[in-house]
Amino acid sequence: MAGIYIHIPYCRKVCFYCDFHFTASFKDVTPVLASITRELEERKNYLQGEQIDTIYFGGGTPSAIEFNQIESVLNTIYQNYSIAPNPEITLEANPDDLHPTYFTNIKNIGINRLSIGVQSFLERDLKWMNRRHSAEKSLESVKFAQKQGFENINIDLIYGIPGLSNEEWKYNLHQFFELGIPHLSAYHLTIEPKTVFGVRKKRGELIETPEDESVEQFNILLEETAKKGYHHYEISNFALAGRYSKHNLSYWKNNTYLGVGPSAHSFNGISRRWNTKLHREYISNVGTGEAYFEEEILTIQEKYNDYILTNLRTMWGVDINKIRNNFGESFIHDLMNTSAKYNDFLNIENETIKLNSKGKFIADRIASEFFVVGEEE
Length: 377
Description:
By secondary structure, the chain is α/β, with parallel strands linked by helices. It contains 15 helices and 15 strands. 41% of the residues lie in helices and 21% in strands. β1, α1 and β2 (52-59) form a beta-alpha-beta unit. The two termini are 32 Å apart. 38% of the residues are buried.
């Protein structure tokens, strides 16, 4: 199973927490999209003819550009790649962009899954994060989508926001459950250095939520979603049975994918490749033979570390036998030694290592402790 990710690097407003690559200026949108089309054509052999099961428009805010621009990119994909019957095609969207006509248009061009950036149903927190939509618009956009026949919907919610009480967090989750949406992506607010919040934190103007309060909200998230029958299938993702994100699941299962657009990443099992974030360089170099990306050939240690990082985040965990067969006994030795050190954060049974609830809150920290550095004999 292979996927294609298209990075649309445009947003109408700067969210104060966002560390993804984007610009609020749309002056180069036409040449960037033309370059995305050229890159898709240029790299049609990157996945070596694998069938494409998922297509994902991320960003940025893909819904901020015209639907016919999305359609043009999709047409190029269908003309150059082998596409599975009924592929999952996801569009990330901001609630403010979603209205009945837009829903009709994107449905007609093949979009069948929406990921809506709600973030909160509390007006106070939306304003604090500098989101451009209201709490009312969040509810309205989801209900519009459902009326237009979209069943495969995800929304994003953020917890660990300074001043967010446990009861308010429960309210956000209650609103999600009331909407009857099959998928939730829930993220702890992270303050990155180069964001507006990062600058405020450095100045002492922003104090992050204490870890014990964040842990409480994470545990509330686990408890409330479990009560409603949602599977916690990846650290930040919860879904009803059969409604997992196929595209994101392919990342966590180490399947191959092609990423196009400024800053997009690709993985073909042998190497990782990432495009420049500089729009001018991307526009001028795609299709000319000039480099617009960097690439690294993965060592066996890096492949092992990738497997640990991605699979430990999932409900399926790390398969000890798979490591033995794919990487060798020396990696098993390191794996089991580290497991013993972090026994309080793990469950080990049936030749599988999984994070327990304590470990899930610090998943990346635990995964990094398993990493192998240097040569393995």
